[in-house]
Amino acid sequence: xxxxxxxxxxxxxxxxxxxxxxxxxxxxxxxxxxxxxxxxxxxxxxxxxxxxxxxxxxxxxxxxxxxxxxxxxxxxxxxxxxxxxxxxxxxxxxxxxxxxxxxxxxxxxxxxxxxxxxxxxxxxxxxxxxxxxxxxxxxxxxxxxxxxxxxxxxxxxxxxxxxxxx
Length: 166
Fold this sequence. Notes:
CATH architecture: 3-Layer(aba) Sandwich
Shape: globular
CATH topology: Leucine Aminopeptidase, subunit E, domain 1
Number of strands: 6
CATH class: Alpha Beta
């Protein structure tokens, strides 16, 4: 059975097999968690990202972790919130499913997840938390390879929303 944890800490400090970052489609580094991951990993991460094709919204791609205490970085591209009429919920579900499938394919035993699309992309926190937790629970019911998944949430209000739903 997979242990699902919630932590309010900096995602780059977690010693996990795969760290997930909320990336943009161009994989060009961004703000928030993506900026923190790129800073901590060092220039090799950006160099590898530049060698990859763009990653569509709702998808994920993996790179090496470079200076991070992980083996891989999973770059997850979530949707920008536009009021809910542009398939944002389904796209966020797809994003989490893509991350989980990719972590499984890589053979990761431990995984960290941020609150994808909740920062600059303005996804409503309660909706995003419900989607994230539902997708993780659905996936871990069918796949036993992941020993633990840690939702690493930087802000208290986001952490509290995830705790309520979990």
